[in-house]
């Protein structure tokens, strides 16, 4: 190839040399002689006979230099244009010249480099294009010789390109080919994307394989890109043989590593590593390996289930310091911001451009060291557990373009934004995401951020007014300050200059949007959220200019006037429309079908009237609750409306039956609410088509008949409310066998009879069971302790509701329940926060005892068994229901005493034991003493300080019985003592002669000892009396007589 190039150059040189001396020098004019003229003619004839090709010598000198000048000028102008417009190192703007673009804008630099190369004159493709574009000019300027010159250059470049950088001339390294083949065979392949890989003949050139790129110089594999090709299986360690590998991307496959990543440490030349979505749950050495790759600049380990370990501090001594891009989001690592991971990242503070650690359960304060990353462009720490204030050092990040700290526990003010004003030529920030935190204070001025395109401060605690500096953010596309506590007036001054604004969200604040009726905004919005912005009473007329609306929420705005006709004709691209919470009058138009893209329509809580119109076919959510709509729902049956999410027609004046063909079309419906209407008839058997239904509410209608057995196919039901109808028959067994996901089952105020089926005990997730006001008889099942969800406190905030559809309706149910039972547990903190476990079997014909198994439901909050025929004594372990807040056992036949363990029910707020046969004294306790007589009235034998009968007759009789019992025991004890004492002594003397002799001998000895003592005492006293004198003779005589008598009896 090189020889061919040289031959081309020789051909070009010979062609040029042929005309190198063709210029005729200027000489004086003279007339040639005849002989000279003849000789000249002969010479010209010889030349013409040699060759008839070429030009006349007199014209060649003019075109050659002109052609060369044209070519040189063209190349010069093209080169100058190429350098100015496409060179990565040439910048027109001063701001870009003051930064390091390779670090600050690596993507843009790469893009400019590609453009520079692709548009280069010496790029073959562009040179060919340039040749064909300038072919005519070249021919005119230089004739045939210029064309030959350009063709020679093209051939030379073509040959050079073939000789340099073509993989066809390079054979891949055998060991690397074998490593790649081994890697392939370790995978489970569902496609033939790697069909070019193999050891067979014709496939051994691995540099031609899919996803493989080799070095043009050494032939080693330097790049392996297998991204998103549905590869499955364990990572083969054979890749460690690719020691020249610089780029490795195995992301978005179904690969896993169940050991460690030691093999990765052999790839010391790696600069780009992407293992996103590779399952690395056992790779405990991932940090040690990755931090040891000294040349690594790009690291992406997204959603890899990385393990969390306590790494040694020594790991970062020799760690890489050239990181540019790091993406570790969605790994849910429980790490502190003081961990070694952050210390490693901060070592690259001079090079790191992009850092994403979102969704990782990071805890602690936001490190101030982030302020030292002066080239950082993108920082995402969202969806973690970070707390405290944002450091003021963030103001040093003048190169920052995107900052996302959303969904954390950050607090304090937004004062750190003031520090960005110190940046030269203002901050480069384009996206500011701080939503779902606890930031407070006012929104600061934003003059330092002229390039801002997105402001997301949703769901914080900001107060004050919206700063007027927002009106100077000419690049702003998204403004979201919804769900704060902002106040004041937002006028045209804030919005008029925002010509690029596309998303405006001011919902749930205390602001008033004060815009003139004929105002024409400069922007064309796509998403509008103005809930509770006091737009009324007129319908906002400026919306007529917004032709690209996709999302519109102007609910709760006190709009009292009807919707203008232009609205139904100027917003054809709407996907979401919410006008709820106003009092808009009028009828629903028949032109709703023009909204071909409309997915969700919420017109609830207005004053719409008349029949239901025809709705768009793509509608998945329809909420018309709390209006005055009347008639049947047949219009919903005459269309192919999907309704795959919600149909809420509650609190209207609708009537008629529930059409069978209508229900059969709602196969994807998840929520059906028809309560508080005038529907009648039976539930159609086609309800079995609602396989995805989660909430079914038919409360307060006129439905009757038995529940259809086809309802058993609705196995995903979470809440069933059929109360306030005329359903009859026995409670079906399939409820407890098929509705296994049920949490709320309400069948009160119907005509159900029979007994409670034991199958209901199989509803282990059930938290509310309400069968009150029916005709149910029999005993309460003893298996209710199998309702395991009632053993602990359950909360509906933990519902499996990823898209948030079910939760609002569960909250609505709690609001209804609390309003209806407010007199029962009005002080209950648990119920107010959506925690409720309740059993209500009141107003039935139940009989039998109180099931002792109920006492094991420690999480039960409400228990109502009133107005039945239950009897017997209450179990003594009633105190085990420690979470009980409301207990109603009134109007039954319970007897015996009130269990003393009930005094330990520390949360009890409502108690009704009235009109039973309880007896005895009411147990004392702080809570039980606090209830008045209404809780105990109607129990004739019950006494206590709460009742007028403070003295208990039965209690006095009981005391007398206790005294009689004591006397009886006393006499029995005396008799037993006498018997044992007397016969124990006397019997032993009768039966044993030795004991008898010893006994009497002891008595005689004792008598002698006593008499001796008395005689000695007598003599002593007589001596004392003799010394006393004659005046004591009478007393002495008396004492002498006394002693004489004692001696007499002693003898």
Automatic annotation (TrEMBL):
Domain of life, source organism: Eukaryota
Q: Does the keyword Repeat apply?
A: yes
The UniProt keywords, alphabetically, are: Cell membrane, Glycoprotein, Leucine-rich repeat, Membrane, Receptor, Repeat, Signal, Transmembrane, Transmembrane helix
Q: Where does it reside? A: Cell membrane
Report the principal subcellular site.
membrane
How does the protein's chain sit in the membrane according to the entry?
Single-pass type I membrane protein
Residue spans crossing the bilayer: 59-80, 969-992
Q: Where is the Leucine-rich repeat-containing N-terminal plant-type domain?
A: 174-215
Among InterPro entries, the record links this protein to: Leu-rich_rpt, Leu-rich_rpt_typical-subtyp, LRR_dom_sf, LRR_N_plant-typ, RLP23-like
Q: Would you tell me the Gene Ontology cellular component terms?
A: plasma membrane
- Provide the family line: Belongs to the RLP family.
Q: What's the protein name? A: Leucine-rich repeat-containing N-terminal plant-type domain-containing protein
